[in-house]
Specification:
alpha/beta; single chain; about 50% helix; two-stranded parallel ribbon; Rossmann fold
């Protein structure tokens, strides 16, 4: 696992001591990504699957986004994903096999207010995934998972309880996803059971985007 926070690295390693390594690296830096992959390969012998999951968001109005904020969000969410994916793909192509799974978002296909930079970055991830899949086949499979609302620490930090309840009200399943539910799809797509799956974006959003405007669901009729 890679994380740019030394504290997070230490915490994760305490929680999951069986991990081969927890490496401090900022994915928006190609130099740090390259060094991290070198260390991961040295420790494990190879990298067979990349879960490309680093991401940040800033809740702000479009007219208030600063160039620095734009660069930060795109630097992690899109450029960082490119750096990690390309570094992994070179290693996998040389070995003749591998799986790359990118984390997109329904924001990348529908757009969300107050998250223009985040939405733009995730739209780029979707396009990047499809292009990579075509170029890297047949040796390397590439897919993306596009979650809707997931109850992560990042989500809790940006949304009040009332905002969370309002979101739940418009999701047909009536709640946010749990992170483990998204992880389960990653696990399937990384496995040999998904050996014929490549080039696709799998939406997992509790039905939120189904039906477009008709999906403003109400559970009381």
């Amino acid at each position: 696992m890679l994380d740019r926070s030394a504290d997070a690295c230490s915490r994760v390693y305490d929680e999951l001591p069986d991990l081969a390594a927890v490496i401090e690296a900022d994915v928006s830096s190609l130099e740090q990504v390259t060094a991290a992959f070198d260390e991961a390969i040295a420790r494990m012998g190879s990298v067979d699957v990349l879960i490309n999951n680093a991401g940040i968001s800033i809740r702000h109005d479009f007219l208030d986004i600063t160039p620095e904020e734009w660069d930060e969000v795109l630097g992690v969410n899109l450029t960082g994903m490119f750096y990690a994916a390309q570094t992994a793909a070179r290693h996998m192509a040389a070995r003749g096999s591998g799986v790359i799974l990118n984390t997109a978002s329904t924001a990348g296909s529908t757009g969300y207010p107050h998250y223009a930079d985040y939405s733009a970055s995730k739209g780029g991830v979707i396009a990047l995934t499809r292009a990579m899949a075509l170029e890297l086949a047949p040796a390397v499979r590439v897919n993306a998972i596009s979650p809707g609302y997931v109850l992560t620490p990042m989500q809790r930090a940006e949304y009040t309880d009332d905002m969370l309840a309002a979101v739940n009200h418009k999701i047909p399943l009536g709640r946010h996803a749990e992170p483990e539910e998204i992880a389960a799809l990653f696990a399937f797509l990384a496995s040999e059971e998904a050996a014929f799956a490549t080039g696709h974006v799998y939406v997992l959003d509790g039905g939120e985007t189904t039906g477009g405007l008709c999906s403003q669901w109400t559970h009381d009729g």
